[in-house]
Each structure stands twice: as structure tokens, then as C-alpha cells.
């Protein structure tokens, strides 16, 4: 939020999109568009009535009402504490397996860890298998990347996805 505010203050931010599942603890499926320009927001919302599903709105509404402002803020504080704890423990785990927890300064949300011991030349079966195992064990929010795949999005080619 701080970075978005700074970007808007020093440069230009028309609008930004945030997932409701990550920011408001509801099932995947909704997004909130934010902007510093209320007129622009009004224009965007007029493009959409009746087309999107109402279930995301209901989910967010119910969740926010039951949490209340204090409950929501409390969770944000808790997330900051858990981030340090996760970083510490994941770092230990990585060290135990001769892997590295990547140093990504200025990113207070996500972490990255190498999976060197699972990658063998041209064979990523074990790497993708780990993603599968995490999924089966209900570990959400993780993403295992083989670094050898290529993805095309519109006319852009992304290597190592
Ligand atoms: C969450 C996430 C997505 C998916 O966004 P949704 O709006 O939740 O569908 C895509 N890319 C990254 C990096 C994400 O963290
Ligand atoms: C994962 O979640 C499902 C649904 O809540 C549950 O039935 C299952 O036992 C969980 N699996 C593990 C390994 O915890």
C-alpha cells in the first residue's frame, strides 16, 4: 500500500486491482479495483453492473462485517509476525537441505526458495511432484516453478516460468 501511495504521489497510478481472496479471506473469484480518482472509479463501475457475479460481493461483505475493523487490523498485524516466523523457519529448512531462501528486499509478502536438490538436467519430475505434494497436503499459496518452461502471454514470450 505504501509503494502504491508513493507511486501515485510521485508519478501516476490510474487504478490497481487486488484479489479478494488474498486481501479479504474469501474464496477465489473476486477482485476490487482501487483508484485515487473517484471519477475514474465511478466510470469503471458503470461499465460492469449486472455482468459480474454477486457472490464475491456477498463473501466480502459477510467477512468484513464478522471481522470488524479491529479484527481485520489484528489479522494484518498477525500476518507481519507470521511472515518473520515463516522466513526464519523456511530459512532453517533450506539450510538443512543445502538450499537457499532467496533474499528479496522490499518484498514483505512472498518468499522464494531454491529446489536445487530436486532438479536434474532436463528432468523436472521431482520438482513438479513437490508442488503436487504440497497441494495434496492443503498447503495453499505456494507455487513451484521448474524454470525450464516457456509461456506465451499475448505476443510476449516468458522463459523460465
Ligand atoms: C494471486 C495471484 C494470481 C491470481 O490472482 P487472483 O486474482 O487471485 O486470481 C496471479 N499471480 C500472482 C503472482 C498471484 O499472487
Ligand atoms: C485437506 O483438506 C480437506 C478438506 O478440508 C480435508 O478433508 C483433508 O483431510 C485435508 N488433508 C490434509 C492432509 O490435511
TrEMBL record:
Pathway: Aminoacyl-tRNA biosynthesis; selenocysteinyl-tRNA(Sec) biosynthesis; selenocysteinyl-tRNA(Sec) from L-seryl-tRNA(Sec) (archaeal/eukaryal route): step 2/2. GO terms for molecular function: O-phosphoseryl-tRNA(Sec) selenium transferase activity; tRNA binding. The keyword tRNA-binding applies. The keyword tRNA-binding applies. Its EC number is 2.9.1.2. Belongs to the SepSecS family. Homotetramer formed by a catalytic dimer and a non-catalytic dimer serving as a binding platform that orients tRNASec for catalysis. Each tetramer binds the CCA ends of two tRNAs which point to the active sites of the catalytic dimer. This is O-phosphoseryl-tRNA(Sec) selenium transferase. It comes from Melipona bicolor.
Amino acid at each position: 500500500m505504501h509503494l502504491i501511495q508513493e507511486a501515485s504521489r510521485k508519478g501516476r497510478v490510474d487504478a490497481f486491482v487486488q484479489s479478494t481472496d488474498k486481501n479479504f479471506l474469501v474464496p477465489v473469484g473476486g477482485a476490487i479495483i482501487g483508484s485515487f480518482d473517484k471519477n475514474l472509479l465511478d466510470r469503471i463501475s458503470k461499465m460492469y453492473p449486472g455482468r459480474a457475479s454477486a457472490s464475491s460481493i456477498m463473501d466480502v461483505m459477510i467477512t468484513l462485517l464478522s471481522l470488524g475493523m479491529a479484527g481485520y487490523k489484528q489479522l494484518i498485524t498477525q500476518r507481519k509476525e507470521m511472515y518473520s516466523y515463516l522466513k526464519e523457519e523456511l530459512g532453517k529448512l533450506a539450510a538443512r537441505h543445502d538450499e537457499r531462501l532467496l533474499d528479496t528486499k522490499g518484498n514483505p509478502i512472498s518468499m522464494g526458495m531454491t529446489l536445487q536438490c530436486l532438479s536434474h538436467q532436463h528432468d523436472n519430475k521431482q520438482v513438479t511432484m513437490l508442488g503436487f505434494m504440497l497441494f495434496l497436503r492443503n498447503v495453499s499459496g505456494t507455487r513451484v516453478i521448474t524454470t525450464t518452461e516457456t509461456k506465451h502471454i499475448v505476443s510476449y514470450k516468458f522463459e523460465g516460468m
